[in-house]
What we know:
This protein is of the alpha/beta class. Helices cover 48% and strands 13% of the residues. The chain has a domain at 116-366: 2-enoyl-CoA Hydratase, Chain A, domain 1.
Amino acid sequence: MKDDDSRSNMNNDASPSSEQQKMADRWTQGPEVPPSKGNEEAGQPGDDADTLRERQRLAQIEMMDHWIGGVLAEQRRSRRWKLFFRLLMLTLFAVALGLGIYRFYAPSEATPAAAHLARVDVNGVIAADAPANAERIIEGLRNAWDADSAEAIVLHINSPGGSPVQSQRIYSEIMRLRESGDKPIVAVIEDIGASGAYYIAAGADDIVASPVSLVGSIGVIYAGFGLEEAIDRVGIERRVLTAGDNKAFLDPFQPFDEEDEAFWQSVLESTHQQFIDDVKAGRGDRLSDNDDLFSGLVWSGAQAQTLGLVDQLGSIDDVAREYSDEAEWQNYTPSLDPFDRLTRRFTQTAAQLLGVDTSPSPLRFQSP
Length: 368
């Protein structure tokens, strides 16, 4: 009896109580969840093997159709974008080609038979890649000079200056025209005619400016940065190979010693002297003996007149009235085609935003 009682007690100890059983089965409690739709391919109870295989095949076909549909949709989107960019490039090419053909075959403006004043504009920075470049302005000057009905040539200047080479080329052409005939060339300065722009104006027979125009700045400027310490702090090693000891003497990442500075200053002085000599040749004894005349200072139009840099105060309208009360104007400045103008503006804007100087020369006849 004791053995039976002990076995019964052991069984009772080994079997869990109903409360413990409820706690152990808490994850299986609750209503029965029906099988999901995704499990239908596994079949239903009682399906034979052929039915299961058919269900699996249909599920695979449905999955393949869905995948193929996604691939085709992506391909259609890709084709649409490719077509869009191809049409865009084709349109740009057609526009550029059309503008080129128009510029080549478009008839030039006929020279007026009646007496008129010929106008050539010098606007903005003077540079080879800017609208105010030597080739364009010289072309306008020559066309105006060859027009028999043009009573005078008016250089309408509104520029802070720019390239020494471009300015000197225009000045030389004006001086050549002055010596080859008696048609007057008048430079009219609007807001500013400084540095390289005044270099051009100095070649004219007369210079007219507003009392508040900015005139002068007869000097040469070079500006740069010394970054040799900055590159050392960043820990970057610059590797420059040259053939010639002084080939990289203007490298901003290398020291600028006294010998380099003295040499570069001599280049600036030589360029400045060329500027001075040409201004004296163009203006003659009309210049005053002021020591600051060629120091790079900028004066108002009224001050410039007392220094002999300007002949009279006035405007382009005053010049027109001087020749005729009803003078007819003809602009001989070669026009820029729209595509060229757009690309130039985009390039200049991008360069300004990036702080990049697009001029190939480090020297500038330009007001700071």
